[in-house]
Amino acid sequence: xxxxxxxxxxxxxxxxxxxxxxxxxxxxxxxxxxxxxxxxxxxxxxxxxxxxxxxxxxxxxxxxxxxxxxxxxxxxxxxxxxxxxxxxxxxxxxxxxxxxxxxxxxxxxxxxxxxxxxxxxxxxxxxxxxxxxxxxxxxxxxxxxxxxxxxxxxxxxxxxxxxxxxxxxxxxxxxxxxxxxxxxxxxxxxxxxxxxxxxxxxxxxxxxxxxxxxxxxxxxxxxxxxxxxxxxxxxxxxxxxxxxxxxxxxxxxxxxxxxxxxxxxxxxxxxxxxxxxxxxxxxxxxxxxxxxxxxxxxxxxxxxxxxxxxxxxxxxxxxxxxxxxxxxxxxxxxxxxxxxxxxxxxxxx
Length: 349
Known about the structure:
Shape: elongated
Number of strands: 6
Radius of gyration: 23 Å
Oligomer: single chain
Structural class: alpha/beta
Helix content: 40-55%
Distance between the termini: 42 Å
C-alpha cells in the first residue's frame, strides 16, 4: 500500500466508515471499488474527487499526503462491554492521528517530554503488590498521601500523552506505546470518577509487569493499583478506621468528593483492606442494587469537585502561534477546527 493509500485507509477507519459508507458519503461520486483501488495504490483520485473525499472524511486533504512513522505497540483496550470492530479501529486511528499532531507540535517547539518509568522493575502478582507499587509511585512523584486533583495534568507533566475521544459508553479507555511515548486514550463522555479510574488503570498497563495470571485477574490487579494510587491505604484507614461492621453512604460520599473514587470502588477497597467483612460487603451491594445506581438506572450519590482535562497539546499550539512560529491557519489545522473558531478561541484565551 502506498503512502496516500495508507493515509486514506487511516482516515476512513478514523471516521468509522466502511469503503461503501465512504462511497455513499460522496453521493456516489465514487464507488466502493474506486475506494479500494485508491487504498491499494492502483489509482489516484482527481483533485475534485480528492476534495469531496476529504470533506466526507472530515479531514484536510493535506492529511492524506502527510508522512507518518508513528505506530502503536502493546495496545490494550479496556471495555465495559463489547466494542464493535469499527469503533475499535476508529479509536485506534484517532489516537494515532492525535499522536502525529502532538509529536509535530512538540518537534516544532522543541518540547518533547521524555517519560521515565518509576516502576520499571515492579511486578504485581497480588493485592499487597498493588498497594506497594502505588505507594512507590506516589513516593517517586512526591505526592505524599494527598488527593490528586487533576490526574491528566499530572501525567502530561510526566510525559504521558492523553487523548479524549467521543465514543459510545461501551468504551472506557486504551493504553499503548509509540516508541518511547506512552499514550492513554479515554472516553470524553465518561463521568469524572470513571475517567480517573480509567486513567490510572491504563497507566498500570503501561508501566507495570504482572505475574502470571489470566485476563480477568490482571484487570482486577490494575483496578487494585488504581484505587490504591487514588486513595492510599493509610488515608483510607485514617478516614474510616481499621475495622467496621458497616460504612454509611454519608462517609463514602465524603471520600468520593475528596479523592474522586466511586462508591462501589470504595466499598471494594474497604473489603480488600480487611476494613469490612464479606457480610458487610454483600449488604452494601444489596442496598446499592435497591437504590438503582449499581445498575445505572439512577446516578450514584455524591460528587467530586475535582477537574480533569488534558491541555498540553492546546497550550503548545497556542504558544507556537503567539510567538509567530506557526500561522493561525497551521494552528487551526493542528487543532482540527476552522480558522475563525481557532482565531476566536486564541483571542479569548
